[in-house]
Amino acid sequence: MFMHIVDICEVAYDRDCWRAYLGAFAADAPRYLSVFARRLCDQAGADPGRYRETVERDPFSAVDLLVEPGRLGLDVGEHVERLSADGVTCQVVHGGMWKIPGGTVNDRVAALVDGRTELRFWAGISLKDPSAAEREAVRSHRELGATGFSIIPFLDEADVLSEAFTPVFAYAERERLPVWIHCGQNFATARPVDSCSWWQLDRLAGRHPALRIVAGHGGWPWLGEMAAVAQRHQHVYLDSSTHRASAMRTPGYGWEPVLARVEGPLRRKVLFGSTTWVSGRSAGELAGEFAGLGLTDTALQAWLSGNASRLLEAGS
């Protein structure tokens, strides 16, 4: 276990937020509920056979099966204690504009994070409605205390390069707020696999040179191109969330272009993220696997904490 870990990407939700989050997949990307069926059932305590039969027929009913047992919840005190035991000194928790009783997931996550120095809140911004996206970016920053934003273009069926979203990115650039953008492969099979990829982030970074962009999940499988984008733009970073280090070292997995440069030009550009529900492993366990990559202590600590610490401090 490492004694100092900064986790740039986690989903830490209570029951209402889980229902809204999974409901968004049911509506716009139901394939996720099938691909991650085992992980979701394990975490929720749902019956796998009943779930698999239901998810193909009615994704929304499958979400109910996951939420009903009651294990998809959150005790924020226990969550922070687990982080401390894992050596995680700071964790970014992502929100969303999805509706829940009494407000939105952003409202609820902001309240959970409030007063917890170990947690940072990055507001989820939906691009389905450009005007609503701009309003929520300003509201979540000024009223909810968001220190960054999180965007999932494939769920919104939106192009980040559309001029309609310029006000959102310009606000983040002006206020020095990092923007995490889901990049690379997605399982929304009715939408393009490259709904947001390396070339969009390259152009977005060119338009907004001071905007701190985090390529969510590293932009896999286009890691060679993403490595080039991160090298040529000062404020573009690669987040390794959902990719286990134990898999990265497997020949052909796709992270070779990053690993080949992480001791050099990409040393300051890689960030650790957990998204623990995808792997069923804790942040500490996931970070521990990085020891097997054979990196120097300098590169390893930069990836697991140093780079993210600088990114978070720059926006504070």
Question: Could you please describe the fold and organization of this structure?
Answer:
It is a single chain. The chain is of the alpha/beta class and 316 residues long. It folds into two domains: 5-14 and 74-314, Metal-dependent hydrolases (TIM Barrel, Alpha-Beta Barrel); 16-67, no CATH class. It is built from 17 helices and ten strands. Helix 8 runs parallel beside helix 10 and helix 11 (198-207) packs parallel to helix 12 (223-232).
Largest sheet: 8 strands, parallel
Strand order of the largest sheet: 1-2-5-6-7-8-9-10
Number of strands: 10
Radius of gyration: 18 Å
Helices and strands: which structural class?
Answer: alpha/beta
Cα-to-Cα separation, first versus last residue: 28 Å
Shape: globular
The CATH class assignment of the largest domain is Alpha Beta
Mean pLDDT figure: 96
Assign the CATH topology of the largest domain: TIM Barrel
Task: Characterize the quaternary organization of these chains.
Answer: single chain
- The CATH architecture of the largest domain: Alpha-Beta Barrel
Let me know the CATH homologous superfamily of the largest domain. Metal-dependent hydrolases
Helical content class: 40-55%
Beta-strand percent range: 5-15%
Total discrete domains: 2
Summarize this entry quickly.
With 316 residues, this protein is α/β, with parallel strands linked by helices. It folds into two domains: 5-14 and 74-314, Metal-dependent hydrolases (TIM Barrel, Alpha-Beta Barrel); 16-67, no CATH class. It has helices at 15-28, 31-35, 37-44, 48-57, 59-67, 76-86, 105-113, 130-142, 153-156, 166-174, 198-207, 223-232, 245-248, 256-259, 276-279, 283-288, 297-314; strands at residues 5-10, 88-94, 99-100, 103-104, 119-124, 148-151, 179-182, 213-216, 236-239, 270-271.
